[in-house]
Design brief:
Layout (H helix, E strand, L loop, with lengths): L2 H14 L8 H11 L4 E4 L12 E5 L2 E8 L12 H10 L2 E5 L3 E6 L2 E7 L1 E4 L2 E4 L4 H11 L2 H5 L3 H26 L4 H12 L6 H21 L9 H7 L5 H10 L6 H15 L3 H5 L2 H5 L4 H13 L1 H6 L2 H8 L1
Helix pairs in contact: 6-8, 6-11, 6-14, 8-9, 8-11, 8-16, 9-10
Length: 324
């Protein structure tokens, strides 16, 4: 199906008066498959993100590279009624399309980078805009190469996932304290308070936890001999025994008792490192930074993405090394 055929097909459905938002899902999926080769499109994916489930996920080699949220034709995708949902997606998803099936907004790292309409509604019909077809096709192809453009810069991807994890953790601990509920996350928070920092707040705990998980994932990936696969379970096995604090933490996140509120995001963080070209990431790092420890090199850059102010005052290495 080419773009012209796509607009004709959705016009027939639209004019019937019986079509709804889901009626066009298969048509857009078919169009994307025709335009972009070598990717997989899943309609209505289950539990792929911690911020909700966008209507489509596009994957390459089982790695999510983009997400699409679609509203019904004729709906105003800039409407306030979608603001909460779209803000949540833009904050959590690095590569996102928001569309009403004819108007497409392309977001990267939460910022609107492109917008194009391939058709418009006139006189109760969907009229194609052929002059925009090539632009849309190029934008869609570029959208589906996002992971290739960022795969050498895992610090940005990891920082985005770690920020999301921090937010989820802080809300989870605060909620458990408010409701006086027992959970494994709350128990870990109390342990951190009693052993490490007695005046620890939920926000500070979430910062330490998210940074340390990213630190551990990277450390484990450096020791990974099978680069084609990686998971939180494998990370737990690869953490050096010389770092008992990290090993205990990863024994929890790799096990069956992991809090379901953070499970998806931790898995997404592992996906980032599975997609990371470690050799490319470390290539020439010592020459440019005058550092010879890849962990320090990675975290200097990671913290500048995660929280520049935190980088100036303290870092995960302080906690990780203090606790080892």
């Amino acid at each position: 199906m080419n773009i012209q055929q796509y607009t004709e097909t959705i016009n027939k459905r639209y004019k019937s008066g019986m079509a709804r938002e889901h009626s066009y899902r298969g048509d857009l999926e078919e169009l994307i498959r025709e335009i972009v080769q070598g990717v997989e499109i899943t309609n209505e994916p289950a539990n792929v993100t911690a911020c909700g489930n966008p209507d489509y996920v596009i994957t390459k080699g089982k790695i999510p590279i983009g997400f699409i949220e679609a509203k019904d034709i004729g709906k105003d995708i800039n409407s306030k009624q979608y603001k909460e949902q779209f803000d949540r997606y833009r904050k959590a998803l690095d590569n996102l399309i928001i569309t009403d099936y004819i108007r497409f907004q392309f977001y990267q790292h939460g910022e609107l980078v492109h917008e194009v309409s391939i058709a418009e509604i006139r006189e109760n019909e969907i009229k194609a805009i052929p002059d925009k077809f090539t632009e849309f096709e190029n934008l869609l192809k570029d959208f589906c190469t996002f992971i290739g453009q960022t795969i050498k810069s895992s610090k940005k991807l990891a920082a985005a996932k770690a920020r999301l994890l921090q937010n989820i953790l802080e809300r989870a601990v605060s909620s458990d304290e408010e409701k006086k509920e027992d959970s494994s996350i709350k128990a870990q928070y109390e342990t951190f308070k009693s052993i490490l920092i007695h005046d620890l707040t939920p926000q500070a705990f979430a910062d330490i936890y998210a940074q340390t998980l990213a630190y551990g994932m990277f450390a484990a990936r450096l020791h990974d001999k099978t680069l084609e696969d990686f998971s939180r379970q494998e990370a737990a096995e690869l953490i050096p025994k010389t770092n008992p604090f990290l090993r205990r933490l990863f024994a929890y996140v790799a096990g069956p008792d992991i809090d379901e509120r953070i499970c998806t995001t931790v898995d997404n963080l592992a996906d980032v490192f599975r997609a990371t070209n470690v050799d490319a990431l470390l290539h020439n790092f010592g020459k440019s930074t005058q550092m010879h420890d890849p962990i320090i090199h990675f975290y200097e850059d990671f913290l500048s993405e995660y929280d520049p102010q935190l980088r100036k005052s303290r870092g995960v290495l302080v906690y990780a090394r203090t606790c080892c």
